[in-house]
Design brief:
The protein is mostly beta strands. The chain contains no helices and four strands. It has one domain. The strands form two sheets. The protein has a two-stranded antiparallel sheet. The structure holds FE2/S2 (inorganic) cluster. The site of FE2/S2 (inorganic) cluster has 12 residues, from loops.
Length: 80
């Protein structure tokens, strides 16, 4: 299993829209974090598609090591 790149060690706090589909970057290479920009090409990673349950701010994982992907679970603290 490939290890993703750590895009950042803090989550991105982003307002998401209820019902809308988003593509979360799983590889860590995207320049449009925390979302996929296609940079995973050639890696074994695929973006994770998900939709927001409510319109509100979410903490999205950027260290790519969360066990609750695409959401932050605080795991970035262990990577510092
Ligand atoms: S750019 Fe990272 S999953 Fe697409």
């Amino acid at each position: 299993m490939e290890t993703p790149e750590i895009a950042d060690t803090t989550p991105a706090i982003i307002e998401l829209e209820e019902g809308k589909t988003y593509f979360w970057c799983a590889c860590g290479r995207s320049k449009k974090q925390p979302f996929c920009d296609g940079s995973h090409k050639g890696t074994g990673f695929q973006p994770l598609s998900f939709s927001a349950e409510k319109s509100k701010k979410y903490f999205l994982c950027q260290c790519k090591h969360s066990s609750k992907k695409p959401f932050c679970d605080g795991n970035h603290k262990h990577l510092l």
